[in-house]
């Protein structure tokens, strides 16, 4: 056992050591007394052995125990103990009184020192398991509690309970700090923890696991664990009082169930963390852990480097999805959508790798690949008598990268492609990312007669200010609104308003995600210009698209 282990052992077993010492110390005092008597009385050196039980009493029992047993020891060597047992000479009272006083001083001092040492060590061990500023238990203590739960539930096999572990992340800490000062995160966490504690059962434990993160550990019957999480997610949506303000603090939640499988506490925490990350990336309030999430996360780690290779190894390809002009019922263009056939994972949807690629410069290479393929496609189709504009999805990095627009324009010129055969689709977020520069670059594109569409319209900032400042020719109403038509009133209002707005500004509208004839005819009724969706065709590989296109033209001629 090393020193740390001895100290830990001592403090863990402190109570039992105290109880034992209450028996051992009097015995030791008795033994020393007998030793002093046997060796000829108090005048010999053996009386000093009494310091052992006195110091022990102070060390184990603290100040009161140290003083008490010092008194006992003083009296044991007191008036009845001769100076010399052979001659029978007795002690002067001052002799034993002074000795007893001295014992009390030693016992008291060792007890007091031990008391403060113990308090300090107790504070240190509290510190190791708590967050100092809020007083909440920390990550370490969460892990210990989970370990404890596992031990308990193993004991009570018949009454096996499930527990839910939730991680709650406070969003926009920077914004809050900007408004209320940098200590605001601690205070928000405190207010939040108190609010949750007041609204949940006593058995729920709340922890602070990171600067901007709380964790909740609570028992749940398997049937209602989902309800329990939903209840907390709903609670989190309520405003909390903060300095005389009532503020809404946006959060994301990741949850996992403890008790279905036997995992280490660290694994459960990791599962909840994965669920939390997925809630962020999927733009959900909360996500519950599933093994699919884990597989995805493992895959995502290697995905970026695989993507780099995919570009070299020709694993990427482009599918084309038609856009239909509702008035003339003709194909008015296509959208180029990237496809990745991974040798191990099969078909990986772009939503799984584009956002990742957008975090690095890899997106520039991907866009360059798409631009090259698309321009080649236009040339091939031109030779085959097909003249359809192709839309390219472009990210904010592309548009603010100095080379993108120049390269595109050079490529078009070199292949003698007219600008009106290319369209650029950009999301609202990408448009306002760097508005000044985006404005300059988009103007260059529109001067070359390249049409610019606002993709996923309605899901982003929907700030109308930028629309006036940018040369936008089409807004593309997001499929989340379109799929609800014509019954969902909320979606209907948004789509109607978007179309009216666009008309006022002289901008065309396209609805994406049209899956049924009912949606298509409703859109036609409200004067939407174009549509795109599975109802007409899924995105298809080039050859299949051409066959589909010829057949569509033949039917609608
Ligand atoms: P997006 O630009 O909004 O593309 C439309 C997505 O909706 C496509 O998904 C398409 O397959 C799907 N879709 C089309 N019609 C329907 C329908 O009727 N119903 C439903 N439910 N979905 C429909 P996909 O191909 O998986 O692409 C997802 C996203 O990935 C795209 O969303 C776009 O943001 C991005 N992406 C795809 N290709 C590229 C690319 O070459 N470059 C960049 N930067 N992003 C791309
Ligand atoms: Ca698009
Ligand atoms: Ca879209």
Short summary of the structure?
The chain has 557 residues and is α/β, with parallel strands linked by helices.
Could you explain how this protein is built, in words?
There is one protein chain. Helix 12 runs parallel beside helix 14 (402-414). This protein has an eight-stranded mixed beta barrel, surrounded by five helices. A six-stranded mixed beta sheet has the order 1-3-4-2-7-8, with helices on both faces. It folds into three domains: 3-128, no CATH class; 137-289, Alpha-Beta Plaits (2-Layer Sandwich); 311-555, EAL domain (TIM Barrel, Alpha-Beta Barrel), CATH 3.20.20. The longest helix is centred in the first third of the chain and has 37 residues, at 93-129. The chain is built from 21 helices and 18 strands. It has helices at residues 3-12, 14-38, 51-76, 93-129, 139-155, 173-180, 184-199, 225-236, 265-281, 291-312, 350-357, 362-383, 396-400, 402-414, 428-433, 435-447, 465-469, 479-482, 489-504, 517-525, 542-555; strands at 137-138, 162-170, 205-210, 213-220, 240-242, 245-247, 251-258, 286-288, 316-325, 330-342, 346-348, 390-393, 422-427, 451-457, 474-477, 508-512, 530-532, 540-541. The chain is elongated. With 557 residues, the chain is of the alpha/beta class. One calcium ion (CA) is lined by residues 335, 393, 425, 455.
